[in-house]
Amino acid sequence: MDAEDPRRAITSVGELLLDPRIVSAITRLDRSLVKKAVAEAAGLARLGRLDSSQIVALALSRLPRASSSFSSVLNGTGVVLHTNLGRASLSASAIDAILNATAYVDLEYKLDTGERTPRARNTVLALLEAIPDADDALVVNNGAAALLLACCALSRAKQVVISRGEMVEIGAGFRLPDLIRSLGIEICEVGTTNRTAIDDYRAGISMGGDTIVKIHPSNFHLSGFTSAVGVSELAALGLPLIVDIGSGLLRPDRLIPDEPNVADTLIAGATVVTFSADKLLGGPQAGILAGRSDAMSKIRAHPLSRAMRIDKLTAAALEATLRGPSTPTYEYIHADSESLLRRCQYIAASTGTDVVPSVGAIGGGSAPDARLDGWAVALPERFARLLRMGEPPIIGRLERGYLLVDPRCIPVEKDAELIDSISRAMRDPSCT
Ligand SMILES: *Cc1c(COP(=O)(O)O)cnc(C)c1O
After folding, report:
1. Ligand 1, closest atom to CA 278?
2. Extended strands (E) in 95-247
3. pTM of the complete model beyond 0.70
4. Helix axis angle, 415-427 relative to 337-351, nearest 10°?
5. Pairing relationship of beta strands 354-360 and 241-246 according to DSSP bridges
6. What is the mean pLDDT of the chain?
7. Which of 64, 155, 243, 264 is deepest in the core (most CB within 10 A)?
8. What are phi and psi of 402, to 5 degrees?
9. Is the per-residue pLDDT at 163 higher than 60?
10. 217: preceding bond cis by omega (within 30 degrees)
11. Helix (H) or strand (E) run with residue 4 in it
């Protein structure tokens, strides 16, 4: 390389790292990741394949914009608990609680005495206030974990009795009976797909089952010649009774009359009720076990409870969900059809779209028969990708050859952004 060779003029990687644009990237991203991108770009310049003035720009273009790649999206599907979109949208108080718990917190610590306390005691207290019929409660990672832990801790014989009508697949190919068996617990299957009677359970007990598990078939509906045994009748058999109600409705809701609730299930005699925190409860992902104190003590003491323990952010968000104002999940499910219509009329008038009726759903495998009557704006189907790739991304629902954007699960204060994003898509040359 002679003295005139322009490649000699290329700034060293060390100096490039002092460029203000790179310094700013290092505040957002891992230093070695940034350094690698810069070194690669400088390498291209040294080979003469890049102008040296473009090194920083190329390095930045190859780096992610932020350390987290999650895109916050507008849920225009009309499905309140959309599993692909992360189920429940958290309340403002839950979000504050998470931010507040990010650094050091008194998670297992009592400030006035300086003593260690049980983990997340205030979350458990909030749960017990919300579920006065339970003696004790415990929070684990998710609903499936709650059910498994209850089975492991309560069945001494490692044999549980389950009706064939309740052998549920919860999604993504995962089946609750397989999960239970994977822990070495045998299932005494009783009854048939459509009908199970109390005598079937008695037969299961005589086969060695020492714990009864009742699973709410939350994501499908069986109708016709069917029968199942209720919680109070099962409780009368005198064995530990675990009831997985799935959706976590704390008390009856007239909009979803077929959905079992925690209070009534405990009053009917369940030993332990298990459910998810991020379905109808509208909180962070977690699984809750609530019930009688003797059973709950066994559950707490079981080694698996440690493997399923929740983190401080979940504990904080769950407490705030329970103690805070009503959740987005509740508000979206109970959204008033008239105000959804008015919002749609305004969005349609601003964007040149049409207003059509839309039936939303609760989703997340909850209350498959519940119809949430509302409204949507309709666009030609070909706009789906453009809206998904927009800023902010809008996820709609394809139906009858149209792309429907239902405002039910979109906060009202986002309507202006929604309108901007739809208008931009409508003007995009690729779709006209
Ligand atoms: C959703 C559901 C589960 C699984 O709960 P996760 O929180 O998703 O692990 C288990 N049982 C029933 C009845 C459910 O509805």
Report:
1. 7
2. 136-140, 159-163, 169-171, 174-175, 186-190, 211-215, 241-246
3. yes
4. 40
5. unpaired
6. 95
7. 243
8. -120, 160
9. yes
10. no
11. none
Evaluate: CB of 246 within 6 angstroms of ligand 1: yes
Torsion of CA 353, 357, 362, 363, to 10 degrees: -60
Burial class (CB in 10 A: 0-12, 13-18, 19+), 265: buried
Element (H, E) at 15: helix 13-16
- Token code pair at residue 345: 């009329």
- Ligand 1 centroid–CA 16 distance in Å is 51
Ligand 1 contact via 143 beta carbon (within 6 Å): yes
pLDDT at position 3: 53
| Rounded-to-integer distance, Cα 379 and Cα 398, Å | 10
Q: What is the pLDDT of residues 359-407, one digit of tens each?
A: 999 998 788 889 999 999 999 999 999 999 999 999 999 998 999 999 9
Q: How far out from the chain centre does Cα 404 lie?
A: 23
Taking residue 372's Cβ as centre, other Cβ atoms within 10 Å add up to 25
Q: How many CB atoms lie within 10 A of CB 331?
A: 18
299 contacts 274 by C-beta, under 8 angstroms: no
| CB of 354 closer than 8 Å to CB of 378 | yes
Q: Does the beta carbon of 276 lie inside 6 Å of ligand 1?
A: yes
Closest C-alpha among 425, 424, 420 to residue 403: 425
pLDDT digits (tens, 9 = 90+) for 236-271: 999 999 999 999 999 999 999 989 999 999 999 999
Tell how far CA 66 is from the center of its chain.
Answer: 23
Q: State the Cα–Cα distance between residues 334 and 120, nearest whole angstrom.
A: 31
Amino acid found at 365: G
- What's the rounded Cα separation, in Å, for the pair 58 and 50? 9
| CB of 75 closer than 6 angstroms to any ligand 1 atom | no
Residue whose pair of structure tokens reads 């902010």 in the numeric block: 392
